[in-house]
Amino acid sequence: MMNAAMFYGPGDVRFERVPVPVPRPGEVLVKVRAALTCGTDIKTYQRGHPAIIKKIPSTFGHEFSGDVVEVGEGVSGFKPGMRVACCNSAPCQKCFYCKNGQQNLCENLTVLNGAYAEYIVVPRPLVDFNLLEIPDHLSYEEAAMSEPLGTAVHAMRLTPIKQGDTVAVIGSGPLGLMITRLAYLRGARVILLGKGEERLQKGREFGASEVVDVSRYESIDDQVKRAISLTDAGRGADVVIEAVGQPEAWQEALLLVRKGGAVTFFGGCKSGTTMIVDTVQLHYSELTLLGVFHQTPGDFRRSLELLSTRLVDGRELVKETVPLSRLLDAFRWVKELKAIKYAIDPTLM
Ligand SMILES: [Zn+2]
Ligand SMILES: [Zn+2]
């Protein structure tokens, strides 16, 4: 038997002893050593997640790393004792999008959930394409960051940033901070709009040369005015990257971008929401508006590489490791902006 956080419904997570899963042919059983808190899991806890959790009770959690303990029949390349990081999903490599090099848009994505448990079975497509050995010097907490960072790597791969560009990043959550770091590494001057003392400080350490604490401004217009005043000749940002996932932030991005600039919409909003784009602005200002989603196996590999070299220092993003029984506290602390992320150790109850 093993420890697991079981999702029974919105606001109802129970800590139980459940049977250790058994790997079938092609699968790998991993002992979870670090599972990170993530905004998506917090949302799942609060209101459920029809796409991720189809039947209840269900395990959940999707950013993790650990040790291989058992491999199913026919698995080569992995053996017990190997330290691994795993993406939260894998593409089929067979559909139109996969063959078109857009595996992030795969029509038959295999999604993995259940990292807030002592053991997790990694399904075959993930074993084949998105399970990676991690170097000795990299901690489990850092390695688990490879999944979220992969989505930031994907966004940055598609975002047209040139050296010396001014990039406004909206949002100081874990992804906003990772994007800040990646934009800095691309040679951009980053203006970070966000809130939370510690997060903004991290943003500076990650390379933001200017920080706008949005909690100090009464209206979005005032925030925008402040941020624009920090751009070259007050023209607006060359590139804006939205990493909040609220329609207001999407809308705000359009106010921050200069003529001829680009906006990347990274944060997913609730379904059914819309934004208004002024056709005159889009047309006469020649804006490039770009939606980005998820990651490809290539992005995931690059992400682990960035963490391994510590060009992105994952140690800076995890506050501390807490036992599984403190999972809901950790969710609350993140919501209260007390930390960017917590690592959960499921062996500790
Ligand atoms: Zn996540
Ligand atoms: Zn596919």
CATH architecture descriptor text of the largest domain: Alpha-Beta Complex
Total of domains: 2
Instruction: Bin the helical content.
Output: 25-40%
Q: What is the CATH superfamily of the largest domain?
A: Medium-chain alcohol dehydrogenases, catalytic domain
| Cofactors, ions and other ligands in the entry | zinc ion
What's the alpha carbon Rg, rounded to whole Å? Answer: 20 Å
Structural class: alpha/beta
What's the CATH class label of the largest domain? Alpha Beta
**What name does CATH use for the topology of the largest domain?**
Quinone Oxidoreductase, Chain A, domain 1
The largest β sheet comes out as: 7 strands, mixed
Low-confidence stretches: none
Distance between the termini: 13 Å
Q: What are the secondary-structure elements, in order, as H or E?
A: EEEHEEEEHEEHEHHEHEHEHEHEHEHEHE
- The total of beta strands comes to 18
Residue fraction in strands: 25-35%
Mean pLDDT over the residues:
96
Number of helices: 12
What does the overall shape look like? globular
Tell me about this structure.
The structure is a single chain. This protein has 349 residues and is of the alpha/beta class. Helices cover 30% and strands 28% of the residues. It has two domains: 2-149 and 295-345, Quinone Oxidoreductase, Chain A, domain 1, CATH 3.90.180; 160-291, 3-Layer(aba) Sandwich (Rossmann fold). Strands 3, 5, 6, 9, 10, 17 and 18 form a seven-stranded mixed β-sheet that branches. The protein has a six-stranded parallel β-sheet with strand order 13-12-11-14-15-16, with helices on both faces. The chain has a three-stranded antiparallel β-sheet with strand order 2-1-4, covered by helices on one side. A hairpin with a 2-residue loop joins β1 (2-9) and β2. The longest helix has 13 residues, at 146-158. The two termini are 13 Å apart.
